[in-house]
Amino acid sequence: MTKSRMEAFSDGVLAIIITIMVLELRVPHGSDLAALLPVAPKFMSYVLSFILLGIYWNNHHHLLQAIKQVDGRVLWANLHLLFWLSIVPFVTGWMGENAFTAWPVALYGLVQLFAAVAYFILVRSLIHLHGRGSVLAAAVGRDFKGKVSLAIYGVAIPVAFLRSWIACGLYVLVAVLWLIPDRRIERTITR
Fold it and tell me: How far is CA 31 from CA 20, 155, 172, in A?
């Protein structure tokens, strides 16, 4: 079956997830800059989540450019990814509402870890469908950034109970790691 429905559905779900997150930001009461201080943690958690969701959207788009078709396994793997991403607004709000305390920060990391695992499963499902000699398999290669991201999330979750700001810094590190453009798929497709 073609990939177009999966791509359109995924784009729609990600758009709704981002919309839900921004609707959680409340306008502060007061007209001076001091009125912004109470909403700063919520805004910072929103920015981090927006960037991470944008990275997923961007990588998902590139992933689907490298394939020709999908099957039932891929559709379920994609739904698995969308499930974990759909929980991001909840953990984003909880983390921001509680000013980055241990449990919300740890749960945020757990959801990010499960989303990263789900993305890894989606990539592997697509490679299984298209073969080890496919454009996608060549583009993904050893998936160093994906594996490093999983490890960073795995470390950050328990660290949240020691120093939640270090765990948040590790989440930012993953975002920075992925903000650096990964042109493997684009280069492989254009060859």
Answer: 25, 41, 30
Closest CA to 11 of 46, 45, 50, 56: 56
Name the phi and psi angles at 109, rounded to 5. Answer: -65, -40
Distance of alpha carbon 162 from alpha carbon 102, whole angstroms: 8
- Quote the CA–CA distance of 124 and 73 in Å, as a whole number: 10
Give the residue extent of every domain in the chain: 4-190
Angle at 41 between CA 181 and CA 27, to 5 degrees: 105
Q: Which residues fall within 8 angstroms of residue 97, CB to CB, at 6 or more apart? A: 41, 42, 104
Measure the CA–CA gap between 102 and 98, rounded to whole angstroms: 9
- The contacts of residue 174 (CB under 8 Å, 6+ apart) are 52, 112, 149, 152, 153
Q: How far apart are CA 93 and CA 105, in angstroms?
A: 11
Tens of pLDDT along 41-83?
Answer: 999 999 999 999 999 999 999 899 889 999 999 999 999 999 9
What's the rounded Cα separation, in Å, for the pair 89 and 82? 12
pLDDT score of 181: 64
